[in-house]
Amino acid sequence: MTENSTRPLRVERNPAPVRTQVIDNLRQAIIDRRFLPGQRLIERELVELTGVSRTSIREALRELTAEGLVTSVPNKGNVVTTVSAKEAAQLYEVRSALEGLAGRIFVRNASAKARYDLAKAMRDIERAASAGVSILEPKDHFYDILFAGGGNDALRLIAGSLHARISVLRSLSLSLPGRTAQSLTELHAILTAVEANDADGAAEACSRHVEAAGRAAIEALTKGQPVEVG
């Protein structure tokens, strides 16, 4: 389980819109596998957990359904989406193409600041790994920089539409023993290619990283591996 696994679902009264907080909290609970694939999401129970209205819960569930994290099942209601090994393979195939392109255009278009920020994000990932906590959040930041730095808004939009489902699978892939260390090696290869101004090398390193993560996620899905992200 991640270090966020015990984070309360209760929505706090702060300037962020309640709807946004509810969606974020429930999304993270699914990614952390506090709500397991196939588990029913009962509105009354979610109202009690979050402290918000049933209307807010329904809006959040609609958004998570659009993201592919929740499925509406006839005669059962809303359940956490179950991803098959075949579906995971398809998602990673698309992700490999997108991230390979992201790496290539980052080298071509990124500013000096974006390159500095990418290197800093890599150091943040390493610090998280050394501390024995989840690298998912700093990895998200690494990829945010990679996609933003290339300046292709269409690419960012398409990748963003897959982000929630990919986050669940990334959590699974990192659950396998040794996968976190291997992931760090692969991310270093991306950064090395960027620093060498090697667009082809960055594209290849990005795709290779995604393909390895995909194999790990599918292995975890097949084995029913318990998630202990590190």
- Rg, nearest Å: 18 Å
Number of helices: 9
- CATH topology name of the largest domain: Four Helix Bundle (Hemerythrin (Met), subunit A)
Number of domains: 2
Rounded mean pLDDT is 88
Widest sheet, order of strands:
1-2
The tally of strands reads 2
Distance between the termini: 8 Å
Helix/strand/pairing category: mainly alpha
What share of residues are in beta strands? under 5%
* N-to-C order of helices and strands: HHHEEHHHHHH
- CATH-assigned homologous superfamily of the largest domain: GntR ligand-binding domain-like
Uncertain runs: 225-230
CATH class of the largest domain: Mainly Alpha
Assigned CATH architecture of the largest domain: Up-down Bundle
Overall spatial form: globular
Describe this structure in words.
The protein has 230 residues and is mainly alpha-helical. It has two domains: 18-80, Arc Repressor Mutant, subunit A; 85-223, Four Helix Bundle (Hemerythrin (Met), subunit A), CATH 1.20.120.530. Helix content is 68%, strand content 3%. It contains nine helices and two strands, in the order H-H-H-E-E-H-H-H-H-H-H. The protein has a two-stranded antiparallel sheet with strand order 1-2. A hairpin with a 3-residue loop joins strand 1 and strand 2 (77-80). Helix 8 packs antiparallel against helix 9. Mean pLDDT is 88; it is low at 225-230.
